[in-house]
């Protein structure tokens, strides 16, 4: 992973997703589509970018109560991108109440649900707890399943 910081911090127009994906694929920020500018049609360019890198999107794991067991058992079988995963947390600044569906923030995690990179420089402080950090997954609300193409059945 190559740490790439977001350049736009905003409740509605931030580029944390672009920076997180650039970090995972060790690209420059400018090499990744500006997903925030593509909403609501961001998914097709997202998938096309993954395919261009030899990966594909296989779905998402959620941390809600009914899927907690599935989430932790499923991630151990995944490769991710060099063992790391793109995930979402509730934004500490714009969604401190931790309401799923409100403003989310992109981070990079490992298989143990530890945030290993946060593209927002304001959130890289020791002891930062994301909203819902008591959910057993350090506040991780969902994990995008991005796997190498050759491993996809």
Structural write-up:
This protein has 153 residues and is an alpha+beta fold. It has a domain at 55-151. The protein is 18% helix and 21% strand. It has three helices and five strands; from the N terminus they run H-H-E-H-E-E-E-E. Strands 1-5-2-3-4 form a five-stranded antiparallel sheet, sandwiched between helices. A hairpin with a 5-residue loop joins strand 3 (104-109) and strand 4. The longest helix is centred in the N-terminal third of the chain and has 10 residues, at 43-52. The radius of gyration is 14 Å and the shape is globular. It starts with 15 loop residues before the first helix and ends in a 5-residue tail after the last strand. The model has no long low-confidence stretch (mean pLDDT 89).
Task: Give a quick summary of the entry.
With 153 residues, the chain is of the alpha+beta class. Helices cover 18% and strands 21% of the residues.
Q: Determine the structural class based on helices, strands and strand pairing.
A: alpha+beta
Helicity level = 10-25%
Rg over CA atoms: 14 Å
The beta-strand count equals 5
Largest β sheet strand count, sense and barrel closure: 5 strands, antiparallel
Intertermini distance: 26 Å
Topology pattern, helix = H, strand = E: HHEHEEEE
* Beta-strand percentage range: 15-25%
Q: Main traits of this protein?
A:
153 residues, alpha+beta, 18% helix
Question: What's the SSE blueprint?
Answer:
Elements: H1 16-24, H2 43-52, E1 55-62, H3 68-75, E2 85-90, E3 104-109, E4 115-117, E5 140-148
Antiparallel strand pairs: 1-5, 2-3, 2-5, 3-4
